[in-house]
Design goal:
- The protein is an alpha/beta fold.
- It has one domain: TIM Barrel (Alpha-Beta Barrel), CATH 3.20.20.140.
- The chain is 49% helix and 14% strand.
- The chain has a four-stranded parallel sheet with strand order 1-2-3-4.
- The longest helix is centred in the middle third of the chain and has 19 residues.
- It is globular.
- The structure holds adenine and zinc ion (ZN).
- The site of adenine has 10 residues, from loops.
């Protein structure tokens, strides 16, 4: 399919990728081995067999358990480099990468260790493949705002090395309003903020992310399709949505790809980007998402070009960097 080949080859950015969610079972077992840790699964196949999720929480439970193998700066470096190798193969020229410091600091891993490892991998990825990247610290929304403030205090000595802040983990029952003061502080530090909203949570959470957190992008946002006034507003503001199609199907937001609301979101004129979220857990990287979406919707080359362009323009890359890609 020449359209699919074009979509895969187009220079593009990935804007919604949790680095801990790129931990493949093989790498998890290798790290467990070298760190002298036992994973609660017999082998790679047993772990992969557990990737059968009923909803976001059932995924998060496994995702946090596997993150326990990440201990040293070398682990975080190897994780980053493995992701960037896959990204390069899918035509990604720029990646804005989420990480969850609280998942690591709660286990006694220093923030500095995590940061240095991720940066080492990013530097190697830039040298090998020319991929630029940014790091975005995500706060875990199932924890308290106070815990978020404590995490921000640990981040602040390294603030120049962090591009922005995000909000992830269990959405239902943890609305953006819970973090209004924390995000005001992040913005006062001069950083752009983003938030997961409208993945499993209602459209009201998307309004809160816009109005209370003042986000630069909405992560997921697919439940906006339930609210025509919200769709109009998102289109008018050209607010980027970082949509993750395979993730949404694997976490049962939509039963099948054919039922995904991507076509409605595009028809409403929204600034949509495609992303892989947690590629090791959800059946693939950005290229796999593109293949799955194209198999369901058969878009034309112009649509794929627009999606690639949206991803570059919705990124936090400088105008000079963007000019080099477009
Ligand atoms: N953390 C990692 N992936 C996530 C997702 N899809 N939603 C919320 N939190 C996450
Ligand atoms: Zn996500």
């Amino acid at each position: 399919d020449p359209v699919l080949d074009f979509a895969l080859r187009c220079p593009k950015a990935e804007l919604h990728l949790h680095i801990e969610g790129s931990l493949e079972p093989e790498l998890a077992f290798a790290m467990a081995e070298r760190n002298g840790i036992r994973l609660p699964y017999a082998d790679v196949d047993a772990l992969r067999a557990a990737y059968d999720f009923a909803d976001l929480q059932s995924f998060l439970d496994l995702y946090y358990a596997c993150a326990d193998v990440l201990r040293t700066a070398a682990d975080f470096r190897d994780l980053m480099l493995a992701y960037l190798a896959r990204a390069h193969a899918d035509g990604i020229v720029h990646a804005e990468i989420f990480f969850d410091p609280q998942t690591h600091t709660a286990r006694g891993i220093r923030f500095q260790t995590v940061l240095e490892g991720l940066e080492a991998g990013a530097a190697e990825g830039l040298a090998r493949w020319g991929i630029s990247s940014r790091l975005i610290v995500c706060f875990l929304r199932h924890l308290s705002e106070e815990d978020g403030f404590a995490t921000l205090a640990e981040v602040e000595p390294f603030i120049a090395r962090i591009h922005g802040f995000g909000l992830d983990s269990s959405e239902r029952g943890h609305p953006p309003s819970k973090f209004e003061r924390l995000f005001a502080r992040c913005r006062a530090l001069g950083k752009p903020v983003v938030a997961h909203a409208g993945e499993e949570g209602p459209p009201a959470y998307i309004y809160e992310a816009l109005d209370l957190l003042k986000v630069a992008r909405i992560d997921h946002g697919v439940r906006a399709s339930e609210d025509p006034a919200l769709l109009q507003r998102l289109a008018r503001e050209r607010m980027p949505l970082t949509v993750c199609p395979l993730s949404n199907v694997r976490l049962c937001v939509f039963a099948r790809m054919e039922q995904h609301t991507l076509p409605q979101l595009l028809a409403a004129g929204l600034n949509i980007t495609l992303n892989s979220d947690d590629p090791a857990y959800f059946g693939g990287y950005l290229g796999d998402n593109i293949r799955a979406v194209q198999a369901a919707f058969h878009w034309d080359a112009a649509t794929w070009y627009q999606l690639a362009r949206n991803s570059l323009e919705a990124s936090f890359a400088s105008p000079a960097e963007q000019a080099g890609w477009i």
